[in-house]
Amino acid sequence: MIQLASDNYAPLHPEVLEALAAVGSEPAPAYGADPLTASLADVVRLTFGERAQVYPVLTGTGANVVALTSMLPRWGAVIATEHAHLHTDENGAPERVGGIKVLPVPAADARLTPAAIERYAADLGDVHRAQPLAVSLTQVTELGTVYTPEEVRAVAEAAHAVGMAVHMDGSRLANAAASLGLSLREITADCGVDVVSFGGTKNGAALAEAVLVLNPDAVSGVEMVRKASMQLASKQRYVAAQLLALLSGPDPLWRRNATHANAMARRLREASSAVAGVLVTQPTEANVVFATVPRTLAAALREEFTFYDWGPGEDPERVEVRWMCSWDTPREDVDAFTRRLAALA
């Protein structure tokens, strides 16, 4: 069965596996007091800026909860799009665990604009309203679109002007940077982002995410929040080793993996959009293709390929689907899928 369901399906990259094996069998201090975590802190400063701090965690949801809880007081709220993963796909974790109100705004392409800040800024100081003290952008967005640095900077400037902090859910940050041909710093710290939930699991790692504090003035008690949120790993060196494998070197693995995944998605889009009955619904700016197809066609494809339904199509006989490529997606799999798609259509 060929999978196009999610980049979470992909295995560990061999270089990440080698990095884990290289940790060795000797004891080491627990809870991040080990040499590998110290090395990761150095690499993060080189990558994101001298003020950057790294807090390895185990899951993307955990990263979002730790980041936002440390950014907001008990009465704080976060502005996000209606599509935001922290709003739709984390089982209410920000609300349940962090006590954070999520303020969703409509966004056809899943990108926030300064208008989102304007929409809620009038609530600041109103004792009857949850206080919108942070804004969260997802990069790459849940619809596969990518914020340009100018778009991120515009949101950050609008947020900072009224006292809001800026969080970025970067579960696919690597794919965005590869798509734009920029460094990780150029699309985060240089644009005014205060805190990033950095994703490793979708890009070749396993149980390796991180809260990156780019502006230490924007958080409070992040170490305590991480522990209280059950995201502090005792054998943190194994998490740090994976993140080091992704971030280190002049040609880092994060970029190589993301570049390949993005290229496979572009190949898939080009071939599938030429098939009768297939309507691509979103720009393919990273590693995912959204399209509507007849429901009968989707059902037939699932006999050989895995992928998710995303939403209803233009009429009851059609459905919107999501086809996602990963660091390990072979060109042959993409071509086999598009050939079968054309044959069935």
UniProtKB/TrEMBL annotation:
Keywords noted in UniProt: Pyridoxal phosphate
InterPro entries with a match to the protein in the record: ArAA_b-elim_lyase/Thr_aldolase (IPR001597), PyrdxlP-dep_Trfase (IPR015424), PyrdxlP-dep_Trfase_major (IPR015421), PyrdxlP-dep_Trfase_small (IPR015422)
Coiled coil: none
Cofactor entry: pyridoxal 5'-phosphate
Family of this protein: Belongs to the threonine aldolase family.
Protein name, UniProt field: Threonine aldolase
GO molecular function terms listed in the Swiss-Prot or TrEMBL record: lyase activity
UniProt domain Aromatic amino acid beta-eliminating lyase/threonine aldolase: residue ranges: 3-290
Top-level taxon: Bacteria
Gene Ontology process terms (BP): amino acid metabolic process
Keyword NAD: no
Organism: Ruania alkalisoli
